[in-house]
Amino acid sequence: MMYKPTLEEIKKLRDETLASIAHCKEALEQAEGNFAEALKLIQKRGQAKAADKASRVAQAGIIDSYIHNGKQVGVLLDMRCETDFVARNDEFAKLAHDLCLQIAATSPQWISSQFVPREFLEQKKQEWKQEFIAQGKKGDVIEKALEGKVKTFYKETCLLEQPYIRDEQKTVRDAIDAAVGKLGENIKVNAFIRYAI
Fold first, then answer.
1. How is the chain split into domains, by residue range?
2. What is the pLDDT of residue 56?
3. Which end of the chain is more exposed for a tag (fewer CB within 10 A), N or C?
4. CA-to-CA distance for 94 and 81, rounded, in angstroms?
5. Which residues 6+ apart lie within 8 Å of 3 measured at CB?
6. 60-111+158-196, which class in CATH?
7. Global pTM?
8. Does residue 105 contact residue 136 with C-beta atoms inside 8 Å?
9. Which residues, 6+ apart, have CB-to-CB distance to 110 below 8 Å?
10. What is the CA radius of gyration of the chain?
């Protein structure tokens, strides 16, 4: 017999995800009332939506800013979406501000790994390789260690690959994908700048 979610359960999931009532009901039915599992189903749907919408033009958006206490660190962020309607949405504005806080706290250099200059990465790899050789590592061990170093480097320096400050089990990319699922439009970080004294 199929699980029938209560109105309270549907409302709670909708408040958490902003997904449609029908999607919330369907996710709760599939998860047989398990709220955490239903939440995961909605998030997966959001990631699928994000992939579908990634090619759409994000020409609207907002510029958000953050100045840290003590006025020693400041951030400007240009975040884009498809329409003014979403640009004025509180969820979109909250995500933009959270990303400003993320940038202030973690000081990324690039938006994502695709923005890292190839020559710069190759130079870093050569430096790391020399370190591994000096440590006595050889062959496949060096290659595996280099893969790990590159992943760590991306997590430290690329905004979208970083653990999200609001939930470190997710990356910033996951948080943006979830927002795409909720708001139904392509969302992207167009540019940012971090000032520090």
1. 7-53, 60-111+158-196, 117-156
2. 62
3. N
4. 14
5. 28, 29, 32, 33
6. alpha beta
7. 0.71
8. no
9. 116, 157, 158, 159
10. 20
